[in-house]
Protein: Alcohol dehydrogenase-like N-terminal domain-containing protein
Amino acid sequence: MTPKTQTALVQSRASSTNFSLSFAIEPSCPLADSPSPYHVLVRVCAVSLNPSDWKAPKRFFVEGNGVGCDFCGFVEEAGPLSKIGPRARVCGAIIAMYKASDSHKGAFAQYTWADSRRLLRVPESWSAVQAAALGAVSWSTSGAAISDPEALGLAGLPSKPADKPIPVLVYGGATATGIMTTQLLKLSGYLPIAVCSPKSSALVKRCGAVGTASYLSSSIVQDIKKIAHGVPIRHAIDCVTTPESVSDCMSVIARTGGRYACLEVIPETCVLRRAVKVKVVMAYETENVDTDLNHPVYSRKANAELHGIVMTWTKDIQSLLDRGALIVKPLHELNEGFEGIIEGLDMLRRGDLQDRKLVAVVPS
Structure:
C-alpha cells in the first residue's frame, strides 16, 4: 500500500539548522499521487549529490519543495504504461523542481515518483551507491550537450559511432559530468581531449581521453592543440564554466569557428566569439516541460526534440551499463540518512572533496 506520508529533505528557511543552506528534514511530508501512467513509485535506498542540489534551491528557492536528483531504489508500484514492474532495482534522476507545483518531487526522500521511460535497470554487480552515482543527471546532461543540434550537434552515438573521429575538448574532465562525457564521446567514435588536474589524468585517460592537459599549465591552449596533432578543434564542452575555462575554450576552438556547450551561465566578464555557437545546457530542458524561472538563461520552453534525444540516450546508456562499459567518479560515502546528505551538501558548497562523488544510503 502506498504510504500517505514520508520523511524527506525539503527547502525550508524557517526550519533550517544550517545558516548556509535552507534545508530541513520533514518527517511527515505528504506523498503525492502518481503524475502519469508512465511513472513508478521508487523506494529510495541510496542517493548521490550534485552541485545543482544546493545551487538551484539557493537561486530559485521554493519553501517546502523537495531536494535532490540522482537516486537508486526499488520499484514499489508501477503505472499501467510502465515497462518496469515492482521489485525492479533502478536508478535515475528527478530533475525539474522549480515551481510550487513541483512540491512532490525530489530524490532526497524515502520515496519518489519517477518516469519509467528515463530509468535504468541496475545490474546485480553494481552497488546501490554506485548506481545512485550513475543516476541520470550526468549522462542526460552529456547526451544533451553532445547531440542537441543547438549545442554540439554531433551525430555519433554508442549504438552508431561517428564515421570520422574528430577531437572534442572536455574542460573539467574529472568532474562527474566530465567523466561521463569523456566516456560517451569515446564510445560514440570521437577523440576526447580533457582538461583536468595532473592527479586526475590517469582516471580521465581510463575513461577514454586521448590526452589530457593541466588547467594549471601556462601553455594550456598550446598543450591542447598539440594533443590534437594539428587537427582543428571545433567542439568543446565546458563542465566548470569559469572565466578561465571559457577563455581557454574560446582560444582552442578553430579560427573558422565551432560550437561550445557549457553547464552554467557564462560569467559577464567573458569574451565570446561570433564564430562560435554557444549553448548553456540544462538537464531539466530534456524533460519537455516549460520551466519559467524569470531568468533569461535558465528559463526554458518545453523541448520535444531534446526529450526524444535523451530517450534515445537512455537506451544506449542501458546497453552500456549491461555490458559493463561505464564507470562513475570515485565515491565518498557520507554518514547514513538525511543528516549525512545535508552535511554533504555543505561540503559541496565549500568545495570539499572535489575529486569524489558524494553518496549516501537512505534508511527505509
